[in-house]
């Protein structure tokens, strides 16, 4: 299989996937290294393919937005530490929400979008573990803790419950 055919097969796998696919899964299926998958994804993106990286793997952008109730929730982190971010994300998933991402609006850098696709506490834990491994500052420090969560729930009742949980946590703006 040549490089172009492999990239076509990779994109086809993402189109047919019911959930995000990790670089390891893709590399095994296509019999290449994970680094080649990373390069192939970058090339596909540069050709206009809407592929996003999530805590659970690669997927096509916009798939989860086809159904569900979506809302932007404006938050203000008090402590701006990883513990508070983890608690915030857990409140969303504990109340039936999906965290699609986080958005920051910065005076110099403009709008910064961080795709997440967090469905459960396990996803949150994995995301936070990767963040902690990097040992860098949290991105919300750029905006003094102000950020917007992009969330989805099945219904208004779940949305109300997660907003109430975020109020109790003290992070709603």
Automatic annotation (TrEMBL):
Q: Which domain of life is it from?
A: Bacteria
Q: Where is the signal peptide?
A: none
| This protein's record includes keyword Membrane | no
Q: Where in this chain does the record put each Helix-turn-helix type domain?
A: 6-59
Cite the binding residues for Ni(2+). Answer: 88, 147
> Which GO molecular function annotation, any one, does this entry have?
metal ion binding
InterPro entries, per this entry?
Answer: 3H_dom_sf (IPR035922), 3H_domain (IPR004173), HTH_11 (IPR013196), NadR (IPR026043), WH-like_DNA-bd_sf (IPR036388), WH_DNA-bd_sf (IPR036390)
Keywords from the named record = Metal-binding, Nickel
Domain (3H): give its ranges.
83-172
Supply the name of the protein: Helix-turn-helix type 11 domain protein
Per the UniProt record, the source organism is Acidaminococcus fermentans (strain ATCC 25085 / DSM 20731 / CCUG 9996 / CIP 106432 / VR4)
